[in-house]
């Protein structure tokens, strides 16, 4: 869990340059505007939370607690770090996803955007699996992230999902002692488009 500190700092600094934008929709202007305002409000709240977390004083306290605190303090602080990371990943994913959808032509830049969206989606699924309360929920998060990566990553989504699935399975086996066969099977099911909620019915955690 301690290595998550380095990861979250890197991702949060990237997310500082990300800006939210509206999605294309065939529904009414009023409905689009309402969704835009909702996303904007959520984006601003996430940005505020991340900026608050990134103050020098808070960063110092966080690192000290993770490295030198009691087991309970370290675990609680690590979960806080990972929750902030999930927020940052959501911001990055939404930005790249919107940019890819708004492009009128497909080229190298669009392919990189697709791969980035798929990669961030898989990383988000891995982080949520680390935060999950039990193995069933960890597998469900991986299943859903794999399914989303295929959809959002277009042609490159399958490859990113496959590689990310192997990496996530290995790391979760080391961190949470979840058999890699179980976690990778969850990734495979998501990649196949199966209904993750129906497969892992014992997990009640909200997505």
Automatic annotation (TrEMBL):
Keywords: Signal. The keyword Repressor does not apply. Residues 1-20 form the signal peptide. The keyword Signal applies. PANTHER family: AGAP010294-PA (PTHR41158:SF2). This is Protein TsetseEP domain-containing protein.
């Amino acid at each position: 869990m301690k290595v998550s500190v380095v990861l979250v700092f890197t991702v949060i600094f990237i997310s500082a340059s990300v800006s939210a934008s509206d999605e294309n929709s065939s529904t009414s202007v009023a409905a689009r505007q309402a969704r835009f305002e909702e996303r904007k409000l959520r984006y601003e709240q996430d940005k505020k939370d991340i900026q608050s977390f990134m103050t020098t004083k808070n960063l110092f306290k966080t690192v000290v607690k993770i490295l030198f605190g009691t087991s309970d303090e370290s675990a609680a602080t690590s979960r806080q770090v990972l929750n902030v990371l999930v927020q940052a990943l959501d911001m990055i994913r939404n930005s790249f996803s919107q940019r890819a959808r708004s492009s009128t032509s497909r080229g190298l830049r669009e392919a990189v955007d697709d791969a980035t969206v798929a990669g961030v989606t898989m990383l988000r699924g891995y982080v949520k699996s680390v935060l999950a309360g039990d193995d069933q929920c960890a597998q469900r998060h991986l299943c859903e992230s794999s399914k989303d990566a295929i959809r959002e990553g277009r042609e490159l989504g399958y490859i990113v999902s496959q590689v990310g699935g192997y990496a996530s399975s290995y790391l979760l086996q080391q961190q949470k002692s979840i058999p890699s066969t179980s976690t990778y099977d969850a990734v495979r099911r998501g990649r196949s488009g199966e209904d993750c909620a129906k497969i892992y019915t014992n997990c009640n955690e909200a997505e």
